[in-house]
Amino acid sequence: MTANHLLRELAPISAGGWRLLDQEARQRLTVALGARKVVDFSGPRGWEHSAMSLGRTDELPLNDGLVVAQRRVLPLVEVRADFTVSRRELEAYDRGAAYTDLDSLNEAALRIASAENVAVLHGWEAASIHGVTQATPHEPIPRVEDFVDYPKRVAKAVTVLLQAGIGEPFGLVLGPGHYNAVMESTERGGYLLAEHLQRILHGPIVWAPGVRGAIVMSLRGGDFLFESGQDLSIGYSHHDADTVHLYLEESFSFQVATPEAAVHLRNRGEE
């Protein structure tokens, strides 16, 4: 979905070139936007949408006997990741080249996806976003380096959630290093560690760049609320004889509705 402020019509890029860029961005972002896989996504509501309703009010000083209250809202934050594309590469694509160098776009997609994951899962103070690991009242569960012991810690986290009245299914969100280790590990008897974890969770294991440690979260719905204004889109900045300057952009906010619906598996030595 393209908004007018993205100025795409001014870029020296063919319709086919735009399809290529959008497809590449979509593929990269779908993989990297791990936080979206474990929260409730609402929107997109458009670039003009400015704030998320919190459903609460603050009383204001009375005036002439009136009762006055101001609604609380959480402003959306705009996030942008710049990247470039070679005009020669775009021209080669239009001629039928089998390969197009889009490394800058791929790096920007990973950067902006990681920023969104961190905001949702660990918070973003400057944007007034209180993340999942900040909100949870449960004590973090320390993680040791032996990934074979991971099921014990995940099972403990699941037990904590069940005792708090939080229902299944659950998801396990992991940063890239932990994800690789879990997926590559086997337990005694040759069983895959990932399969054991999924049986405990009754839910998925999610790759999320930017995550610190691991987080076990309820996927029952209604606990973690992500509101999208403009969903991630490619916009045009400017160009010269050799390079087109573009960017990925989104606006969003996030709130935790049920703080007790997640448990953080913290790294050793992490505050």
UniProtKB/TrEMBL annotation:
GO CC list: encapsulin nanocompartment
Classification via InterPro entries: ENCAP (IPR007544), Encapsulin_nc (IPR051429)
Subcellular location: Encapsulin nanocompartment
Keywords linked to the UniProt accession: Encapsulin nanocompartment
Major localization listed first in the record, in broad terms: other
Keyword Signal attached: no
Name of one Pfam family that matches: Linocin_M18
Family note: Belongs to the encapsulin family. Family 1 subfamily.
Protein name: Type 1 encapsulin shell protein
